[in-house]
Amino acid sequence: MEYSALLLILVLVSLVVEAQIPLQCANIETLTSRTCCPVPDLPDAGPCGANLGRGSCRPVAVPDSKFDAEQKDVRVNWPIQYFNSTCVCGERFGGVDCGECSYAYNDGGNCERKTVLPRKSVAELTDEDWREYVAVLLRAQAFPSRYMVVTVNFTTDYQTLVDSMTRPSVYHMFVWVHYTASNTPGINSMHDMAHQGPGFPTWHRLLILWFERELQVMLGDHLFRFHYWNWLDPTQRDVPFTPHRLGATVDTIVTGDLVDGNWSLICWFDKRNFTRPDNPVWPSYADYQFALSIKNYDVSPYNALVKCTEESYRSYMEGFLNERGADCGDDPMCSPIHNILGLGNLTARPTFLQTGVMGDGSASPNDPIFINHHTMVDCMLEEWIQKYQVGEEAYPTSRRIKYGHRATDYIVPFIPVYQQKEMLVSADNFGAFGTDCSVSATA
Ligand SMILES: *[C@@H]1O[C@H](CO)[C@@H](O)[C@H](O)[C@H]1NC(C)=O
Ligand SMILES: *[C@@H]1O[C@H](CO)[C@@H](O)[C@H](O)[C@H]1NC(C)=O
Ligand SMILES: *[C@@H]1O[C@H](CO)[C@@H](O)[C@H](O)[C@H]1NC(C)=O
Ligand SMILES: *[C@@H]1O[C@H](CO)[C@@H](O)[C@H](O)[C@H]1NC(C)=O
Ligand SMILES: *[C@@H]1O[C@H](CO)[C@@H](O)[C@H](O)[C@H]1NC(C)=O
Fold first, then answer.
1. How many domains does the chain have?
2. Would you indicate the residue range of the signal peptide (predicted)?
């Protein structure tokens, strides 16, 4: 299918993109009723497959009764401004209309069996695996998403919302989802609902699961899985960066199959020249073991100002290189990976796009190494969850936590909806990893 990124790029430049609406609910009737409870394509299913026992249409319960009207930020108390009811699916079922299997019961059939497909280290992939994977990525930039993007500020003139909608590709929707969670749409300020707070690990966990499902559906292959890039292991750091993988740098120009396939970027406005230390400090296994030793998930003030010494696993794992994170010293974990790759000296460090998009937090998923990096981050989260045998109760419930990161906030901007705390459970609940995504075991 042909698809042009141009329209989306143009509307994104205007910075008023507002929401991600499933195709089934991107119509005036659904928007007017504020009820996104579609009927799955199954005989006599009823809304949310209720007649088949798959799910039911339920009011969404948001932490506050009203959204932040002054800010006009539809992400606050997501998705209440658009929808006050959505499908809630039973354990085995999933998708916007409960017509799919849940992440855990994704058996390619009737959702009867739990299916665990362990992720691998990218170091285990063969050249043929990489060739297929790069083809999947390129196809995802050309294949239409199952979601529409609203490109105007919210209004109850629903026709205006519908008229403004645009349909990006599967891959560009993935970039956009990250971008919009990180920035306040329509407003010239930042309120980040995916980073610098307790939702960092949980938000990205859902992103990876959701995008993996979008690609499974695109491919018609429920076995498709992402793999993790273990940058803790010095021998694996260069593995993804060859011409037939995610690209290589030759004479400061990035080349390879993705570039030849006209890989395109969206949502990327901040093209300033980043600078970084000449000799990047990669996180070490010792850093990682220290992170694993922190038992508290997060502590006050639940943001980037939490000092590493204050026993916050989340803050330490997320890592900050700037002055706010000075207390992290040489130890911060995950954010530096973006900087090493995105801001890097191209001669010394291959990076997919010479302009450094991986170093731009909001738009970084434009560089597909983001996927393998965040699959790695998720492996680490899982190892921590397993070590302390914790679940939802470990997610802090303080009222000081910023919008979007609160325990019962629905993760922005996803439909079907999941609360932040629901992602802080063993990955067995999502059919991911199995038992062998143990990062420390490879040390
Ligand atoms: C949802 O919104 C619609 C339209 O404004 C309203 O009629 C309905 O009562 C609301 N339902 C709930 C559960 O709040
Ligand atoms: C959208 O809302 C914001 C915040 O109120 C405002 O600054 C901006 O101009 C609006 N954009 C449009 C296109 O109306
Ligand atoms: C990439 O774009 C160039 C220039 O428009 C075109 O000649 C080429 O066929 C494209 N390659 C692919 C794989 O689409
Ligand atoms: C970034 O640096 C390169 C190389 O020094 C230079 O050619 C380019 O103009 C700079 N871009 C900006 C936006 O400053
Ligand atoms: C980049 O790295 C190469 C190889 O390590 C080095 O020779 C070069 O001086 C570096 N360039 C800059 C601008 O740091």
1. 1
2. 1-19
In a domain, 56, yes or no: yes
pTM of the model: 0.89
CA–CA distance, 437 with 117 (Å, rounded to integer): 11
Q: Return the pLDDT at 352.
A: 46
| Residues within a 6 A CB radius of ligand 4 | 271-273
Ligand 2 within 6 A of 186 CB? yes
Contacts of 328 (CB under 8 A, 6+ apart): 307, 308, 316, 319, 320, 321
Assign residue 202 the CATH number of its domain: 1.10.1280.10
Domain annotation covers residue 191 = yes
CA of 276 to the centre of ligand 5 (A): 12
Return phi, psi of residue 175, to 5°. Answer: -65, -45
Q: Is residue 277 part of a domain?
A: yes
Distance (Å) from CA 343 to ligand 5 centroid: 13
For residue 183, the model assigns a pLDDT of 82
Ligand 2, pocket-test mutation among 16, 152, 188, most atoms within 8 A of CB: 16
pLDDT at 439: 72
For residue 261 and ligand 3, the question of a CB distance below 6 A is answered with yes
Q: Which of 30, 34, 158 to mutate to test the pocket of ligand 1 (most atoms within 8 A of CB)?
A: 34
Q: Residue 149's beta-bridge partner residues? A: 20, 166
Structural domain of 319: 3-14+21-437
Ligand 1 binding residues, C-beta < 6 A:
33-34, 59, 84-85
Cα angle, residue 198 at apex, residues 196 and 202 outer, rounded to 5°: 105
* Closest ligand 2 atom, residue 188 Cα: 7
Instruction: Note the pLDDT of residue 329.
Output: 46
Q: Among the residues of 294-360, which ranges form H helices?
A: 313-318, 335-342
Instruction: Collect all residues with Cβ–Cβ distance below 8 Å to 25 and sequence separation of at least 6.
Output: 31, 36, 38, 83, 96, 415
Residue 442 included in any domain: no
